[in-house]
């Protein structure tokens, strides 16, 4: 009897100690409850989940256009265009026909089609692409009806252990429903997007599920499925979804008519707190985001953020690392301020940082067309918005490669997106016009200084 009382006391104390939000969840109490079905939820949300088909022309070997080559090797005169096709899923987020999916599903696509759960197909146009979140927004063409949509859940309310349902088109077999639980929250070491703060689930997610819905027991969108961890290519119970609060930001930008996502600009570079840094700062554990650089004139500078400040929370939400801060800050609505708590010299201090976008004037983005090692590269002047987007040091000088087709000469000689071109043949490159002029003039030898990943490289190329 004493043992029973002890167990009861332990059970009661554990309930009292549990977070209030966890007490709202119910455990099945009988075999009857175990026979309950998810069918009502699925029937309600399934029409809002779509299949996405994307196609693009495969790179063509230029030798196939040479008559001598075709005749020598017996290649027929006219070769049909080869198409590369990808498939994924999407979620209807506006009744007018607005669909959110993963950017990697439609990246580089020449044609995009959307298939509804009732088998109807529509041509779609790409409204917005955001590689930083791996999200894209599509709009169905030539539609006059209203479509079923999913409402957004507040993904910050999700708890580990919550039951969730994944809906998508795995392996192209057709719309499929799987279920599981939220296995973990705030996964930041996944390496998929700039904003790493994923919901992890054991609901079966496979190739083709990308862009599909992860819904809660209220039938609301808690996340967009985007990746799996797998050694075989199939589901191994580790899937990742972009939280609904981040999806909401991208959708809002598209609804506002923008072709790019508008998000707050911090104007500071952060770094993780290592055990060694934590010991130096007198912290019990390595957590928070350490300020490594502050851009002059940025919102953080105006708010008084300083080098070596340790950010520990934003609007009352604890910050464990820079990825957590990036996500929390990026999902704040523009306008107003964010209350950021920092430790400065071991003492707490609160700063109000304005939630405003980074200036994006004077890019002067051009494609280098002249025969040179830079041919085919799209380059731009470094604006604060571009530096923030590409995670460049705000004090860096030069111009940056913003796009690079696979068949461009610049790609063949080794340039990469994000490379900062500092100098060419001893001349400092401060504007895109400087590089365009040098490329047009030509040279037999090219001495080029580039900054890549914070490291300065010098190369010499023949003309």
TrEMBL record:
Top-level lineage group: Bacteria
InterPro entries xref list: Chloro_Bact_Ser_Proteases, PDZ, PDZ_sf, Pept_S1C_Do, Peptidase_S1_PA, Peptidase_S1C
BP-aspect Gene Ontology terms: proteolysis
Domain PDZ, residue spans: 248-346
Signal sequence, renumbered to the chain: 1-22
Keyword Cytoplasm listed: no
Record's keyword terms, sorted: Hydrolase, Protease, Repeat, Serine protease, Signal
The keyword Electron transport is annotated on this UniProt entry: no
GO molecular function list: serine-type endopeptidase activity
Active site: 104, 134, 210
Residues that coordinate or bind substrate: 104, 134, 208-210
PANTHER family to which the protein is assigned, alphabetical: PEPTIDASE S12, PROTEASE DO-LIKE 8, CHLOROPLASTIC
Name of protein: DegQ family serine endoprotease
Natural source organism: Afipia massiliensis
Taxonomy of the source species: Bacteria, Pseudomonadati, Pseudomonadota, Alphaproteobacteria, Hyphomicrobiales
């Amino acid at each position: 009897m004493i043992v029973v009382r002890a167990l009861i006391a332990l059970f009661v104390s554990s309930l009292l100690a549990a977070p209030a939000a966890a007490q709202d969840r119910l455990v099945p109490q009988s075999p009857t409850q175990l026979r309950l079905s998810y069918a009502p939820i699925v029937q309600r949300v399934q029409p809002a989940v779509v299949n996405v088909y994307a196609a693009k022309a495969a790179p063509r070997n230029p030798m196939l256009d040479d008559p001598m080559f075709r005749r020598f090797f017996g290649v027929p005169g006219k070769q049909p265009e080869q198409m590369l096709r990808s498939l994924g899923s999407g979620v209807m987020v506006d009744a007018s026909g607005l669909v959110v999916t993963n950017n990697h599903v439609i990246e580089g696509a020449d044609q995009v089609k959307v298939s509804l759960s009732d088998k109807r197909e529509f041509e779609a146009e790409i409204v917005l692409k955001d590689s930083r979140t791996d999200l894209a927004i599509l709009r169905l063409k030539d539609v006059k009806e209203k479509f079923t949509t999913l409402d957004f859940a507040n993904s910050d309310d999700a708890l580990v252990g919550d039951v969730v349902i994944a809906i998508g088109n795995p392996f192209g077999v057709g719309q499929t429903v799987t279920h599981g639980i939220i296995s973990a929250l705030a996964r930041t070491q996944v390496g998929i997007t700039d904003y790493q703060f994923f919901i992890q689930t054991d609901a079966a997610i496979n190739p083709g599920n990308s862009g599909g819905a992860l819904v809660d027991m209220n039938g609301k969108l808690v996340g967009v499925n985007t990746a799996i961890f797998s050694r075989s290519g199939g589901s191994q119970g580790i899937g990742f979804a972009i939280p609904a609060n981040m999806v909401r930001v991208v959708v809002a930008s598209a609804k506002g008519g923008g072709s790019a996502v508008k998000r707050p600009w911090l104007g500071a570079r952060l770094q993780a707190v290592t055990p060694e840094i934590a010991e130096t700062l007198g912290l019990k554990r390595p957590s928070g985001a350490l300020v490594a650089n502050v851009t002059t004139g940025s919102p953080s500078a105006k708010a008084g953020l300083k080098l070596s400040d340790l950010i520990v929370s934003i609007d009352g939400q604890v910050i464990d690392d820079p990825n957590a801060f990036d996500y929390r800050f990026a999902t704040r609505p523009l306008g107003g301020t964010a209350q950021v708590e920092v430790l400065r010299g071991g003492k707490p201090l609160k700063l109000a940082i304005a939630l405003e976008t980074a200036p994006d004037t004077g890019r002067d983005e051009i494609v280098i067309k002249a025969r040179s090692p830079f041919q085919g590269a799209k380059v731009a002047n470094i604006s604060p918005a571009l530096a923030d987007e590409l995670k460049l040091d705000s004090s860096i000088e030069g111009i940056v490669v913003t796009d690079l087709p696979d068949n461009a000469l610049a790609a063949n000689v080794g340039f990469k997106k994000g490379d900062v071109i500092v100098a060419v043949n001893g001349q400092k490159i401060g504007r895109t016009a400087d590089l365009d002029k040098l490329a047009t003039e030509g040279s037999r030898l090219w001495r080029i200084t580039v900054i890549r990943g914070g490291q300065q490289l010098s190369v010499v190329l023949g003309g």
